[in-house]
Amino acid sequence: LSLSQQSHSKHWCWEHVPIHRQPLQAYELPEAVTGWPVAVPPYSQIDVVVVHEAFLSCVKDAWQYLLKNGKGYAADGGIRPEDLILVIHVGTHQDFYVKDF
How many angstroms separate the CA atoms of 59 and 29, rounded? Predict the structure, then answer.
């Protein structure tokens, strides 16, 4: 099964009206870690949202895998095969508030 991953981030400041959410430029670190640099003006707060996602590229392949292996997984879990749920897209949504005092 082919697993794809993506991440993105935006930042904004509530003091600036109208509020414009701007994308942040990511940088890669070892062991699949992504960093997001944030510049915070003096005595300001910057709000940041970071989203990481992982998903299967081909849903058909995921269904075929489940049909082939689902019975064994269900037996291992002590449930019926029809009670299994196919999850093909997962992610995290993180909110940060970076403040300069």
Answer: 30
Residue 72 lies in a domain: no
Q: Which of 59, 84, 54 is nearest to 69 (CA)?
A: 84
Backbone angle region of 64, left / alpha / beta, with phi > 0 → left and psi within -120 to 50 → alpha: alpha
Q: Which residues contact 20 (CB under 8 A, 6 or more apart)?
A: 12
In a domain, 18, yes or no: yes
Q: What is the pLDDT of residues 36-76, one digit of tens each?
A: 999 999 999 999 999 999 999 999 999 999 999 999 999 99
- Specify the 3-state DSSP secondary structure of 81: helix
Tokens representing 22 are 């701007």
